[in-house]
Amino acid sequence: MATASISAQIADLLGIDPTALVRPSVAEAQSACAPGQVLAATDDGGRDVAVARTDDGRLFIVADACPHDGSALSTGFIDGDRLVCARHGWEFDLATGHCPFRQACIDTRRG
Ligand code: FES
């Protein structure tokens, strides 16, 4: 008897379509990402990334893991030029990757 994948089992438990758990490609997320929005995506190497668009429309791609405690940055929000982690509120300048209030940094690149 075949065993369903963990994502299929989770989708079944949640009562949702399993394809809803699949992250879009970076290109798909770039197209869908509105100013002031951050979306989860998967890059060409299969890595989880966050695609973020600043309020003024610039697009950035960062690893989807907060350097503080690993929370998904794609669950955070945009505040001007900054990506704010939803878990504890650390903020990262999307252009530089620097966290202005902590000695932490994320890798960031223009989308
Ligand atoms: S995990 Fe992101 S601020 Fe703590």
Please characterize this protein's 3D structure.
The N and C termini lie far apart (44 Å). By secondary structure, the protein is α+β, with helices and mostly antiparallel strands. It has 2 helices and 7 strands; from the N terminus they run H-H-E-E-E-E-E-E-E. The strands form 2 sheets. Strands 1-2-3-7 form a 4-stranded antiparallel sheet, with helices on one face. The chain has a 3-stranded antiparallel sheet with strand order 4-5-6, with no helix packed on it. The chain is globular. The chain has helices at residues 6-14, 26-32; strands at residues 37-42, 48-53, 59-63, 77-79, 82-84, 91-93, 108-110. It has one domain: Rieske [2Fe-2S] iron-sulphur domain (Rieske Iron-sulfur Protein), CATH 2.102.10. The protein binds FE2/S2 (inorganic) cluster. FE2/S2 (inorganic) cluster binds next to loops.
SSE diagram, text form:
Elements: H1 6-14, H2 26-32, E1 37-42, E2 48-53, E3 59-63, E4 77-79, E5 82-84, E6 91-93, E7 108-110
Antiparallel strand pairs: 1-2, 2-3, 3-7, 4-5, 5-6
This protein binds FE2/S2 (inorganic) cluster.
Which bin fits the share of residues in helices?
10-25%
**Which architecture does the CATH hierarchy give at level 2?**
3-layer Sandwich
Mean pLDDT: 91
The number of E-state strands comes to 7
**Total tally of structural domains:** 1
Kindly provide the name of the CATH class: Mainly Beta
Q: Which fold name fills CATH's third level, the topology?
A: Rieske Iron-sulfur Protein
Distance between the termini: 44 Å
Query: What class do helices, strands and sheet pairing give?
Result: alpha+beta
SSE run: HHEEEEEEE
- Strand order across the biggest sheet? 1-2-3-7
Give the CATH H-level superfamily.
Rieske [2Fe-2S] iron-sulphur domain
Cα-based radius of gyration, to the nearest Å: 15 Å
**Major β-sheet profile:** 4 strands, antiparallel
Q: How many H/I helical runs?
A: 2
Gross morphology is: globular
Distinct ligands, ions and cofactors found in the model:
FE2/S2 (inorganic) cluster
Query: Could you tell me the strand content as a percent range?
Result: 25-35%
- Uncertain segments are none
